[in-house]
Design brief:
Layout: H1 3-6, E1 13-19, E2 23-30, E3 36-42, H2 49-62, E4 70-77, H3 79-86, E5 92-97, H4 103-106, E6 131-134, E7 137-138, E8 144-146, H5 150-162, E9 167-171, H6 180-192, E10 197-200, H7 201-204, H8 210-240, E11 247-250, E12 256-258, H9 259-264, H10 272-287, E13 293-298, E14 303-308, E15 315-316, E16 319-321, E17 333-335, E18 339-340, E19 343-344, E20 351-355, E21 361-367, H11 386-392, H12 410-422, H13 428-453, E22 462-466, H14 470-480, E23 485-488, H15 495-500, E24 506-516, H16 522-542, E25 551-560, E26 567-571, H17 580-596, E27 605-615, E28 636-642, E29 651-657, E30 666-668, E31 671-674, E32 679-682, E33 686-690, E34 696-700
Parallel strand pairs: 1-4, 4-11, 5-6, 5-9, 9-10, 13-22, 22-23, 29-31
Antiparallel strand pairs: 1-2, 2-3, 7-8, 11-12, 13-14, 14-19, 15-18, 16-17, 20-21, 23-34, 24-27, 25-26, 25-27, 28-29, 30-33, 31-32, 33-34
Helix pairs in contact: 3-8, 5-6, 11-12, 11-13, 12-13, 13-14
């Protein structure tokens, strides 16, 4: 039946796709409607696009939506992150300045654990014999001290061809100040290796700090061939399925760009999916008039959190990926890309419980993923996971996982828990409760430290819980943080996918120009800003933003002379004149005082990096709500024995159907609220109310412990 026969040609839809390590989530929303429709399906390996196309076909068919009616398509993915973690990228070669081939192994002077005598550092993505040098030299001001020896570049390419290198990174000293040598090297590489992808440091990460810039450029090159193939394959599959809307990709800064731009700079997708969860949390909190938000997204593989004080999430350019020790900052590959300042806070539903090297119980960071998955999936997994524990405790319904699409095997889960508990003289119930409490404490502790490092009293914040496992654990985490309010939005289980729809088209640019404010060359600075803004306008216009809707923000990283880190401040727009340095100094001192409570009188101030963010308008989104309650459906589903306190033993707990709950319905905990994509556990010291959007507003009872 054609689109005309269905009468759907006039109605247009937005579609969001989020690929996680365990599940792939899809959300479709009619542009003239406020009701979401969703699908959740196990992520497919090794080709995640298979699950995307399968879920797309099912979702559109269920909603009677013709594929041609989709006019906006946004995609978030963990592909880049997983490729870097698993070291499954392309064979990469590096051309760098003579004497700097070992920068990737030397790294930084600092140690992430000064007491570890057997400290492990991440292995470089490029083996040493494929890190080749070329005589050339540029100083910090971009002045040529030694011309580039192009014969050395040709020799490097010949070696790469012999070694079957697929992708090349070029990173010369101080190329951020003058890209001339990198551009000349690129000409040679493209001539000799026309089929290879090429990443140039002055395009990927035009900032000082040699190790970080080289690491970022190499990471971009390492994943670029895979990203290009994946994007092209996904676009081809979507076109074959009848979806002709241009594919837009979620970036790690909370914005989106075209697939072409994402394929050129895939390293900017390292936190692509989790950003959607943060944007969704900000949206739902805003509907409730709440600005102080802890966005808590717990999926099948990982859990993430980020704090927002005014509805806007902080962006950082000091990030890393593929840590040797998952929660030890500094043990990963550094990336100079703009990312939301998130923390990875523990575990996902598939995280494996085990005994560590000291014989003590631990949860994660290893995950069972979607294959084989938790033991209860019945796909060959034998180690107990968080999902197995939640099931054994009675928090999950074995016959209603994914709305009944999957039936969980509770006996297999109990056996896996008993096997682990045997060495600790604990039965499966004790083991399950211990895992539940441990993962809650791990996540709460990480969030507590994250807030303390930023001088934030987290107790006055509200938590917005999303992800398939987030609402199951929200009360347990919130209690440990003394947070008294939790919002579980409609279709919380696919919160990250919904959040993709809220992202504006956006791209960030940066240039390094180090100067004390009193010596600032405003002619040079105006030229830098102009170049970045022109490039940004081209990128966002390519993604479909009209010229009149393009907005530009300027930022600068500033510090006192001698400090090793900077503070980011806003810079005024337009041509900078005589008052610019005073404005920058005033903004820096105000922000420095906010962060540290004082300023340092008599010290010179210097700027290090200059940044531009070019973006389109935020998508217009009304007050979206979940599925309307069906008055013909009984919202009470019965009771289920649930264990949440070893002292009381299992308690018969009321189970409710979220889709049937009327607006204004009040719930006294303990209670379990089930929906297709997730389950909300209302703790024994909590209440919940259904608001007019379908959100569950959980409140800690006064005096509740």
């Amino acid at each position: 039946m054609g689109a005309e026969a269905l009468g759907l040609t006039a109605r247009k839809y937005s579609l969001a796709i989020d690929i996680g390590g365990t599940f792939t989530d899809l959300v479709v929303l009619a542009n003239d409607s406020e009701s979401l429709a969703v699908a959740k399906i196990l992520t497919s390996y090794p080709d995640p696009s298979q699950a995307v196309l399968e879920g797309l076909e099912r979702l559109l068919k269920e909603q009677s939506v013709h594929p041609g009616a989709v006019d906006r398509l946004i995609h978030g993915t963990t592909l880049v992150t997983n490729t870097l973690i698993e070291r499954s990228g392309s064979r990469t070669g590096l051309i760098t300045t003579r004497g700097f081939r070992d920068a990737l192994e030397i790294g930084r002077e600092g140690r992430y654990d000064i007491y570890d005598l057997f400290l492990e550092l991440p292995e470089p993505l490029v083996e040493r014999r494929l890190r080749l040098e070329a005589p050339e030299r540029m100083n910090v001001r971009g002045e040529i001290l030694e011309p580039l020896n192009t014969d050395a570049v040709s020799a490097a390419c010949a070696r790469f061809i012999e070694e079957k290198v697929d992708t090349v990174a070029v990173c010369f000293l101080h190329a951020y100040a003058n890209p001339d040598h990198e551009l000349k090297a690129a000409e040679v590489v493209r001539e000799m290796m026309p089929d290879a992808t090429l990443s140039l440091s002055h395009e990927v990460a035009p900032e000082l700090r040699e190790y970080d810039r080289t690491s970022t450029t190499v990471a971009n090159a390492y994943v670029q061939p895979l990203a290009e193939r994946y994007m092209a394959g996904l676009e081809k599959g979507l076109l074959a399925a009848g979806v002709s809307a241009p594919l837009q990709i979620m970036l790690s800064n909370g914005g989106i760009c075209s697939a072409e731009t994402a394929a050129a700079f895939p390293v900017r997708l390292v936190e692509s999916g989790p950003c959607g969860g943060a944007l969704a949390a900000a949206y739902w909190a805003k509907q409730k008039g709440t600005e102080k938000v802890l966005a808590f997204d717990m999926g099948g593989t990982t859990a993430k959190a980020i704090l927002s004080g005014e509805g806007v999430f902080p962006i950082t350019t000091e990030s890393e990926v593929a840590r040797v020790y998952r929660f030890k900052r500094g043990s990963g590959l550094p990336l100079l890309v703009p990312v939301m300042d998130m923390i990875e806070i523990g575990a996902g539903g598939g995280s494996i419980a085990r005994l560590n090297k000291m014989g003590l119980p631990a949860v994660g960071p290893e995950s069972s993923g979607s294959v084989p998955g938790p033991a209860c999936y019945g796909q060959g997994g034998v180690q107990p996971t968080v999902t197995d524990a939640d099931l054994a405790l009675g928090l999950l319904n074995p016959d209603y996982f994914l709305g009944g699409q999957m039936v969980l095997d509770i006996e297999t889960a109990r056996r896996a828990l008993s096997d682990l508990g045997g060495s600790l003289e604990m039965d499966h119930d004790q083991m399950a409760l211990g895992i539940y409490r441990m993962v809650n404490e791990n996540m709460a502790n990480a969030a507590r430290v994250h807030a303390a490092e930023r001088g934030i009293d987290i107790r006055g914040y509200a938590m917005v819980a999303t992800g398939g496992a987030g609402p199951v654990h929200a009360c347990g985490v919130a209690e440990r943080l003394s947070i008294k309010k939790v919002i579980v939005p409609p279709v919380a289980g696919v919160g990250s996918a919904f959040g993709l729809m809220l992202a504006p088209i956006s791209f960030d640019f940066a240039r390094s120009y180090v100067s004390r404010l009193k010596n600032l060359d405003l002619v040079r600075l105006n030229r830098l800003f102009s170049e970045m803004e022109e490039a940004g306008v081209d990128v966002v216009a390519e993604a479909g933003v009209k010229a009149g809707d393009i907005q530009v923000e300027r930022l600068a990283d500033v510090r006192y002379v001698g400090q090793g880190h900077e503070i980011r401040i806003a810079v005024s727009s337009g041509a900078l004149g005589d008052g610019a340095t005073a404005q920058i100094k005033s903004a820096f001192e105000a922000e420095y005082t906010r962060v540290y409570g004082r300023i340092c009188e008599g010290l010179d101030i210097e700027a290090v990096h200059w940044r531009v963010r070019v973006h389109g308008p935020e998508p217009e989104m009304g007050e979206v709500s979940g599925p309307a309650p069906d008055p013909g459906v009984q919202y009470r589903k019965g009771t289920r024995a649930t264990l949440f306190d070893a002292g009381t033993g299992p308690v018969e707990t009321e189970v409710l159907d979220r889709y049937a709950l009327p607006i204004g319905y009040h719930i006294e905990g303990p209670a379990i609220v089930e929906e297709t994509e997730s389950t909300t556990f209302v703790g024994p010291q909590w209440t919940a109310d259904v608001d007019d959007s379908g959100s569950l507003i959980l409140q800690k009872r006064e005096g509740g412990k």
